[in-house]
């Protein structure tokens, strides 16, 4: 539940990293009361990467600023976390690291889930039923990963200039299937991918600004939503 909470809060990545740094800096003392803290923190870090709360590169930043030599507890935490992320079927294993996903519940590999989301969006966009699409999203059983639906839908809307998927996002939000936190995180992830998306969508920043304003008007996004330096620069160009 704590891992799902981190994913849902939409905290700035640098603040999440700072939190992990503070934990690792105090790990020697905390270990007196929490014997398994090395394994626990390693799993929290790995899960944060899988949930895209922080980027894998942030592990290097954490290590640079906290670890006191290769034999320190901090170094062991980072080493174990990297080992978990590099293992076969790491996404599936890490999503189950806290004991979830027993025999009665299917747990998908993250790449598999992304592929399923892509396919269901394509099927709906080609004439599928909105309620069936919502059911498929719900059946994935990963509400903390619904930001991927938002990201992929927005990218497709901007690339194809077809607003069919906007109707799906509207239905998902109206029905409570996609929460405000997941909606905001999905929009934020699109902004973080401008450099990649511009290869297929030359006017991605300008389009994105329009959809952000529409989402705010329709109540999907908080009026305070911002999307970093790149987005601000695009907004300035758009407004002028």
TrEMBL record:
Can you say where in the cell this protein is located? Cytoplasm
Chain segments annotated as coiled-coil in the UniProt record? none
SMART domains according to UniProt? MA3
Gene Ontology biological process terms in this record: negative regulation of DNA-templated transcription; regulation of translation
Instruction: Note the Pfam families from the entry.
Output: MA3 (PF02847)
Where is this protein chiefly located?
Answer: cytoplasm
Report keywords, A-Z.
Cytoplasm, Nucleus, Repeat, Translation regulation
Q: Which GO terms describe its cellular component?
A: cytoplasm
- Record InterPro entries: ARM-type_fold, Initiation_fac_eIF4g_MI, PDCD4
Question: Where does the MI domain lie?
Answer: 1-64, 112-231
Tell me the protein family, please.
Belongs to the PDCD4 family.
UniProt name for this protein: MI domain-containing protein
Organism placement in taxonomy:
Eukaryota, Viridiplantae, Streptophyta, Embryophyta, Tracheophyta
């Amino acid at each position: 539940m704590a891992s799902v909470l981190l994913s849902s809060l939409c905290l700035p990545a640098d603040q999440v990293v700072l939190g992990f740094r503070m934990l690792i800096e105090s790990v020697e003392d905390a270990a007196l009361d929490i014997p398994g803290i090395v394994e626990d923190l390693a799993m929290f870090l790995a899960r944060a990467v899988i949930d895209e709360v922080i980027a894998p590169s942030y592990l290097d930043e954490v290590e640079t600023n906290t670890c006191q030599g290769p034999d320190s507890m901090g170094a062991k935490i980072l080493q174990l976390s990297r080992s978990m992320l590099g293992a076969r079927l790491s996404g599936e294993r890490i999503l189950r690291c806290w004991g979830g996903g027993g025999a009665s519940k299917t747990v998908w590999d993250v790449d598999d889930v992304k592929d399923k989301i892509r396919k269901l969006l394509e099927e709906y966009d080609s004439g599928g039923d909105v309620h069936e699409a919502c059911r498929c999203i719900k059946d994935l059983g990963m509400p903390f990963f619904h930001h991927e639906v938002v990201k992929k839908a927005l990218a497709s809307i901007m690339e194809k200039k077809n607003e069919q998927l906007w109707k799906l996002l509207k239905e998902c939000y109206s029905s409570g299937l996609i929460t405000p936190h997941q909606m905001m995180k999905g929009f934020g992830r699109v902004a973080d991918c401008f450099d990649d998306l511009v290869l297929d969508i030359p006017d991605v920043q300008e389009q994105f600004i329009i959809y952000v304003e529409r989402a705010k008007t329709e109540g999907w996004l908080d009026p305070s939503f911002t999307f970093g330096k790149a987005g601000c620069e695009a907004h300035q160009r758009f407004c002028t």
